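Follow-up to my post from last week.
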Amino acid sequence: KRGNCHKDEL
Amino acid sequence: MNIFRFLGDISHLSAIIILLLKIWKSRSCAGISGKSQLLFAIVFTTRYLDLFTNFISFYNTSMKVVYVASSYATVWMIYSKFKATYDGNHDTFRVEFLIVPTAILSFLVNHDFTPLEILWTFSIYLESVAILPQLFMVSKTGEAETITSHYLFALGIYRTLYLFNWIWRYQFEEFFDLIAIVAGLVQTVLYCDFFYLYITKVLKGKKLSLPA
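User reply:
Got it. Predicted complex:
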């Protein structure tokens, strides 16, 4: 499961 | 942040600016697919809903604001300000064939069954096919203005650079998002035909013309 870390990409 | 992602963002931003300037300066949106621009506006809206709730960095927030604002401005110019120059007869791609399958897929394949995550997933899937109406329009008209081909090149390169960014992040940050990667691959593959024509024709000073 991908954490919120991913939302740092545009 | 790594060089590939940064160059990708710059490429994406420059594509958006090129298109805005082309339409504003020439006061014409001839050859531009309003449907693709509508899809991009949907992509940014559904992807950046956490714009006000999830602060990452000044860079991240400001880029998101610029993307959303410019995509709406572009749609407004095409469908309102310069709608007399909008070439609706050649912009006939059935976008419902893009929106419905990607919406269904985002419910079936996602990382988390929550509204924000499903909308983010939908925006990722939609973005991978959002350029199809534009490419379809170029193939229908049989050619594109040089500035439009520069716009398409910058737009295509941005997600290609993001693929390298994901390789980098997998290598050095143990970061891996299969949904974004697969969609990014699809998106890049859709541009291959155009990349070939751009490199063999436009870079040699010729006009971009697709075999109709």
